[in-house]
Amino acid sequence: MTECGPGLPEADALYVFAVCREPDPAVIADLRGIATGAPLRLLRFGELAAIVQTVRAADFTDEAWQARMSDRGELERYARAHHHVVSAAAASCPTVPLPLATLYHGEERASQALFAETERFRAALKRTTGHSEWGVKVYAGEPPTADPEPGALPPRVPDTGGGRLRPAPGAGLAYLERKRGVQARRERRHEDALRSAETVDAAFQKVAAAGRRLRLQPQESAGKGRLQVLNATYLVGEHRSAELAELARALRASTGTEIEISGPWVPYSFVGEV
Amino acid sequence: MEREVVPWDNAEPLSGPIGVPLVDLLDRVLATGVVISGDLVIAIADVPLVRLSLHALLSSVNERVPAPWADGGPL
Q: I need a labelling partner for A240 at 20 to 30 A (CA). Which of A63, A155, A158, B27 fits?
């Protein structure tokens, strides 16, 4: 295969999904991968092998990804296609996932680049073999039904003069006090939730070999009215993963927060520099 | 012929192989893993691309997307 520049629209590129130790070619044989056309195959380098697929370079340029990432449906399909291959590989052999969209101009370039990183792959395999990644998300507990009548007007009494209503004495002050109380309670709720997040993180860290905080997810993906206070992920030995559900149950009870666990994941978050 | 259904078979977004929420998946498949330099798509894991394009979609995956609090939350 000759090397092709990015300027040639008909050129092929090589998409790399993951790097494995002694993968079984049968496992990937039936997977479709990230594009229709070429089958998935193994690219061996040293003692390791990458799962790769030949794709059209023109479909995988920066511009193409820009467009793709602006389209939720497209992005989802690519992310899931990538994840599907990574998960299938990891189910059968020690696997280091690569991020979405690692591409080379050709087989030779890919072999060179991958071979040069052999040490990092080896270290990642050593760290993650026998472990899985588990996501833990914590949400603040139910908001207290603080303001009984949101935006309610102060009570009014009949005005002796013109028969119109007018605020009772002291009602304005009471109203402001009430508003202030709502604000204070809201702040307290945030503080409590953040403290709970720390408690939950510390508890999971004890069970885990490693842990990482991910970015908090925005409210629109967390769900309406739910306030996410922790989005963390942990590398947990397989012999300890059974403890996680019980730990979450105990922490839910002791902190009053909502705790969601996801996993086991292929250890995406723990194969890079931790 | 029996074959496992893959996401690619369908033009619609699917629940995926093991029903993973997209937002959690993107937390992991973007800019994590062993990041090695590729020949194409230099900016995929880079802040500008992810921020500009994804912010509108999911806004979960990079440093500059504001947390639900003004102070950036617990991170």
A: B27
Nearest residue, CB atoms, B33 vs list A80, A97, A215? A97
**Which residues contact residue A196 at a Cβ distance below 8 angstroms, ignoring those fewer than 6 apart?**
A138, A140, A229, A255, A256, A257
Domain identity same for A157 and A264: yes
Domain tally, chain B:
1
Cβ-Cβ contacts under 8 Å for A256 (sequence gap 6 or more):
A141, A196
Amino acid occupying residue B4 = E
Instruction: Report whether A82 contacts A17 (CB < 8 A).
Output: yes
Helix (H) or strand (E) holding A54: strand A48-56
Supply the pTM of this predicted model: 0.75
The H or E element that residue B71 is part of is: none
Domain boundary, last residue among A120, A154, A184: A120
Report the complex ipTM: 0.77
